[in-house]
């Protein structure tokens, strides 16, 4: 791969330069990351092992948990390690790989959230046709399209990053590699690339949020014709989805839909949606979902019973 720059590595400034605060960053985000991986792994294992969680909603939740784990892994481990390192060096190729992973799994999460909203719309508004419309084959095709769309988006982001020439300095005022902080280091006019970034990432975030909000408005409107028990169950599920959508899309839109201007709060906002939201998702979906909690209890009882027989 031909590189049009003289910089072969970058130095990440991280969240803070204070030694005491760096130790706090290590402890806090180590706990967050372990909680994210364990929580999402527990959901994926439960869904795969349980016969009662075979509906499309849990099929999509499996991939959301998978995307959450990978999305957090694209940034959290380096942040944790760098918080104890004197020099936070990342090579050019590692930086481009992180850009790809960050956008691939972030976009995958967006598409899966849309698929979950579509699933709820069909289940609530078209209940008689639900088994036909959301068949296993259709769900598999939809997830395949989500993977493909995420790949195309992330490749586009990496291509934009590869077009940036870096002549120095090589200090990235962030804890991870992304296009916004990289644009500040490029020794060229970045207006067009900034515009393409907003068109690509910004348009995906904004249009997806609009689609999701419209779908949930339609769903909530249609609940008027359901029984009180049906409304309660549907509202519980939809509320969980809406909370996740707000927590994820709010920071994303703040970061990717504005001109190429960076603010001190950008790093904290990025932390929230790349590490905070994947950590909260398992709690949101399990604490508000009786079926998942019951399946987890059953799985643990079977595990404990099998261990006691040995």
UniProtKB/TrEMBL annotation:
Q: Keywords in UniProt for this one?
A: Cell membrane, G-protein coupled receptor, Membrane, Olfaction, Receptor, Sensory transduction, Transducer, Transmembrane, Transmembrane helix
Q: Which residues form the G-protein coupled receptors family 1 profile domain?
A: 39-285
Q: How does it sit in the membrane?
A: Multi-pass membrane protein
Q: What is its main location?
A: membrane
The UniProt function text for this chain reads: Putative odorant or sperm cell receptor.
Alphabetized Pfam families for the sequence: 7tm_4
The subcellular localization recorded is: Cell membrane; Membrane
Provide the protein name.
Answer: Olfactory receptor
Organism whose genome encodes this protein: Ursus maritimus
Gene3D superfamilies in UniProt: Rhodopsin 7-helix transmembrane proteins
What molecular function does GO assign, one term? G protein-coupled receptor activity
Bilayer-spanning residue ranges:
24-45, 57-80, 100-118, 138-162, 191-222, 234-256, 268-287
Q: What protein family is recorded?
A: Belongs to the G-protein coupled receptor 1 family.
InterPro entries per record: GPCR_Rhodpsn, GPCR_Rhodpsn_7TM, Olfact_rcpt, Olfactory_Receptors
Which cellular component terms (GO) are annotated to the entry? Answer: plasma membrane
